[in-house]
Design brief:
Largest sheet: 6 strands, parallel
Number of domains: 2
CATH architecture of the largest domain: 3-Layer(aba) Sandwich
CATH topology of the largest domain: Rossmann fold
Structural class: alpha/beta
Number of helices: 10
Radius of gyration: 22 Å
Number of strands: 14
Length: 317
């Protein structure tokens, strides 16, 4: 898969290979089932027209540039993960457009000139609520009206699950409550977090539940605090485990708020400090809680482990 990083006005696409594209366009954070429907439509049109399929996405999140959001933006799928998913879907080319102040000022007409016509796009697919150009004034109706016969347009309607729209906002809300089973349905795959195993306080070893302390890559969304059934990829091999996201209230001063992500990997004794690992999240077992002592904590972790084992046994049936 070819990846082109574009920015306006200095780094625009020069179509040296003279490729024509069926283009899916959107921010696509999460690449959830709604996004997948848009990309699938673009792939089908590409096959039908015998041209390559491309995706155009944007980086960073527009709210960081437009100033409407004061808190830090956390992504469901950081850029590299998004690229990996798009490749797995069969996309040929990705255009990553740098979202800058200059780019945000482009009129819908100029956006089409520089980012649709100049990239030799022959078909555009987007969701029903996609907008473009300054202040989001351009709609998919405008995309069609401004085409001048140079490209055709498909609009993919709203996709729903359990009576609600499938959206990145909804997925973030479910992550905030730890509803990983719902997140998995909306994404069409388990939620994923990638990080490096770092040294922790090593307290897990002393209670016979050693853990891998995962330091997540910057900008990733972290699920709600609690205990989860997870799978973790270590050196390209998947293992089952239980993960605690939280502040370890049994041991730590409640005034010292330092979030940790710790995975107890079943039947695993390797030293993996410094390894990059990927965690897939399946089920929230319980909330984080404070225990009266180590024995009570050990007993509960044993119960959590059993819940996770039984969950994965059912998954594998």
């Amino acid at each position: 898969m070819d990846i082109y990083h574009l920015s306006y006005p200095n780094h625009l696409y020069t179509n040296d290979k003279n490729e024509a594209y069926s283009l899916a366009i959107g921010f696509f954070d999460g690449v959830h089932k709604g996004h997948q429907a848009v990309i699938k439509n673009a792939l089908e049109k590409g096959k039908e027209m015998n041209i390559k399929t491309a995706v155009m996405t944007f980086d960073p999140h527009p709210s960081l540039v437009l100033g409407g959001r004061k808190e830090k933006v956390f992504y469901i799928t950081p850029l590299q993960e998004k690229m990996d998913i798009l490749k797995s879907l069969g996309v040929d080319t990705v255009f990553v457009v740098r979202f800058t102040s200059d780019f945000a000022k482009l009129t819908p007409e100029k956006f089409i000139e520089f980012f649709i016509n100049q990239t030799n796009v022959k078909h555009v697919t987007a969701g029903f609520d996609f907008s473009f150009g300054a202040f989001g004034k351009g709609t998919m109706k405008d995309m069609d009206l401004l085409s001048e016969g140079k490209y055709t347009v498909s609009v993919v309607g709203k996709k729903e699950l359990h009576g609600g729209k499938i959206s990145s906002t909804r997925i973030r809300e479910e992550l905030t409550t730890g509803n990983m089973e719902q997140v998995r349905e909306l994404l069409g795959r388990p939620f994923q977090l990638t990080g490096v195993v770092i040294h922790g306080d090593k307290r897990g070893r002393t209670i016979n539940f050693p853990t891998a302390n995962v330091d997540p890559k910057e900008g990733q969304f972290t699920p709600a605090t609690g205990v989860y059934a997870v799978k973790i990829s270590v050196q390209e091999t998947w293992h089952e485990g239980v993960c605690n996201v939280g502040y370890k209230p049994t041991f730590n001063n409640p005034e010292e708020k330092k979030l940790s992500i710790e995975v107890h990997i079943f039947n695993f004794e390797q030293s993996i400090y410094g390894e990059e690992v990927t965690v897939h999240w399946y089920k929230r077992i319980r909330s984080e809680q404070k225990f009266n002592g180590i024995e009570e904590l050990k007993e509960q972790i044993g119960k959590d482990k059993q819940v996770a084992i039984e969950f994965f046994e059912k998954e594998d049936e």
